[in-house]
Design brief:
This protein is an alpha/beta fold and 309 residues long. The chain folds into 2 domains: 159 residues, Rossmann fold, CATH 3.40.50; 122 residues, Elongation Factor Tu (Ef-tu), domain 3 (Beta Barrel), CATH 2.40.30. It contains 10 helices and 14 strands. The strands form 3 sheets. Strands 1-4-3-2-5-6 form a 6-stranded parallel beta sheet, sandwiched between helices. Helix 5 crosses helix 6 and helix 7 runs antiparallel to helix 8. The two termini are 29 Å apart.
Length: 309
């Protein structure tokens, strides 16, 4: 997949099969669109293209509204690389760009710049100034500018439409299993390992304190989770505490990950923790011994669950 930053730097294609959108999280609904995009490109001997934006449009248009996202730009690129996409265009989203009329967006960007011959869009997709552009507009523009348009219907899992909002709600409830089903992959948090207070070492459960590298990243609700830690291409079974640590009187929200069955030096490393199961809520214990006993129970449960994956 070739990544281009800015439409002005993209070399126009002779036969582009394109789609556009934010694609936050690259969930199963997005993948259905991308699968069709890639399939169509092969059928017509063209090249598949996704036009997306950075920062997320809502961060520009609604700066006072706190927005939490499922994926950083780096995470989104990594997820998109697995789809078979030929080209990814990441265009800066500004207030000026947001005022582009739907006709100009289609003519100047999709047709003249990208070279669109086939356009694949998701269910209820809108574009252009004030989201004025719709599937009906595209059907009107197609014959004029020489492209075909196809709309993908809503994707259902157990009769529930997949959407970024529903994934956020699942994560907010701590239901990472449901969120992962919607995503089609395990939700993860990336960041650098920084020094903590090292209390875990004193009770036999050393942890890596992960400082998230994306300020708008949505973190699941506080709790103890099972998952896997990605470090320099290696994968380790792990469990994590996300939130405060009331037993040691710390109200600071942290993500601390314990690698199961192995102790490795992680300070300064860039890592990714992949969440697979919610084990329990945060609890306060009378002393460190009580916490240690509970962590041993958590470890056994996490080990059993991860062995099933």
């Amino acid at each position: 997949m070739k990544v281009t930053y800015g439409l002005e730097n993209f070399q126009t294609l002779s036969c582009a099969v394109a789609t556009t959108g934010t694609f936050d999280g690259v969930h199963l609904g997005h993948r259905k669109i991308l699968n069709q995009l890639v399939t169509k490109a092969r059928e017509v001997d063209g090249e598949s293209v996704l036009l997306t934006f950075s920062p997320h449009p809502r961060l520009v248009l609604q700066p006072d509204v706190e927005l939490q996202l499922l994926s950083s730009e780096k995470e989104k690129i990594a997820l998109l690389e697995k789809t078979g996409l030929d080209h990814l265009i990441i265009h800066p989203f500004t207030k000026e760009f947001s005022r582009t009329q739907s006709l100009d967006f289609v003519r100047e960007y999709l047709v003249n710049t990208i070279g669109v011959k086939h356009l694949v869009i998701g269910y209820d997709h809108h574009f252009g100034r004030n989201r004025e552009g719709s599937f009906e507009h595209l059907k009107e523009f197609g014959p004029i500018y020489g492209f075909e348009v196809e709309e993908i219907t809503a994707l259902d899992i157990d009769q529930v439409n997949v959407s970024s909002t529903k994934i956020r709600n699942a994560l907010g409830a701590g239901n990472v299993e449901l969120a992962n089903n919607y995503l089609g992959s395990n939700y993860s948090v990336s960041g650098k390992v920084v020094k903590g207070d090292q209390i875990g070492r004193t009770i036999g459960f050393p942890t890596a304190n992960i400082e998230c590298d994306f300020s708008h990243k949505l973190l699941p609700t506080d709790g103890v989770y099972a998952g896997r830690l990605h470090v320099n291409g290696e994968l380790y079974d792990a469990m994590a505490n996300l939130g405060a640590r009331p037993t040691v009187k710390s109200a600071q929200r942290k993500l601390e990950v314990h690698c199961i069955g192995i102790e490795i030096e992680l300070y300064g490393a860039n890592v990714r923790f992949e969440l697979t199961h919610h084990l329990r809520a945060i609890q306060e214990f009378d002393n460190l011994e009580g916490l240690k006993n509970q962590l041993a129970t958590d470890k056994a449960k996490a080990t059993a669950l991860l062995a099933q994956k």
